[in-house]
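Customer ticket, subject: "Can you confirm the structure for cytochrome-c oxidase?"

Message body: Hello, I'm evaluating your service for our small team and ran a test protein. I'd like someone to confirm that this is what the system normally returns, since I don't have a reference to compare against.
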Amino acid sequence: MRKQRTASTQAGRVAKLLGLVALVGLAATGCSGDEVLRFGWPVGVTAEADRMRDLWTWSVVAALAIGVIVWALILWPVIAHRKRGDELPRQFQYNHGLEWIYTGVPVIIVVVLFAFTTSAQNFVNAETRDPDVTVDVLASQWNWSFGYIDVKGFQGSKGSAPVAPDGEMVRTVGNPAEIPMLVLPVNKRIEYRLHSKDVIHSFFVPEFHFKRDVFPFPEKNNQDSTFQNTIDRTGSFVGRCAELCGTYHSQMNFEVRVLPDDVFTQYVQLRTQTNPQTNRPYTAPEALAKLNCGELCTPHAVTTTPFNTDRTARNPSG
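Agent reply: Thanks for trying us out. I re-ran your input and got the following:
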């Protein structure tokens, strides 16, 4: 009896010590509750991002809870049933009830995780038939090109498809002095149509909590080359290529600039007009500068630095 009390006391002390260590570790990080629950993820800017963050958060919480139970089941026999003599303790082999438990519980865990994962995946991949803005995303070594296929509510020479004065699709392409910038409206359904000019790239915006590989035509293995989302706040968000694609892969950045809907409408209108100072169609930086709407209309990317798109600028390797 005394031995059992001693073992129980020791187990209680270990549990208190582990709890104290956990509290000290949490306090030492200096993180807020929201930051702790994100487990390192950036703040999302879309409903899809929030859904994925929720899946990640509660999956980690469930894993930690299961881990604590497993650790307790390991530590309890180690502490309470350590060897105290040559006499063997009571044996429990062929315990069918226990076998059902440790077989059934993992199956239930996997089924529940699968159900929540499938639900989140379906939500993230859902697409409406009539998005507000449809953009063409063309990746190439080592640059991005963004064009507007359709902008609902816009009225131009070709209906809702913005067309530049030269008759071409309104498009933004990066150059050695300017990061390619994809300008979008806030709280509107956006469809991204992805394709590559050469090798496989990957469209990745950390605040979207989402990335998708960009394949050259024709896509292989029924690769889905489109996705949709709705960005719920204005601002500038860095984008990157997340697939190793060659020499300047690390510098293949872009920026997503999200404007209020009325400002975005003015931006698109300007992109379909001729700049009287240059006698050419307004570029993205020129249109943003003319809008003069503060930090949101900064004419140059604010989250990345320019890169060199000249493939011949690199030194030969041998």
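A couple of notes from the result: The first helix runs from residue 2 to 29. The first strand starts at residue 133 and ends at 140. Feel free to reply with more questions.
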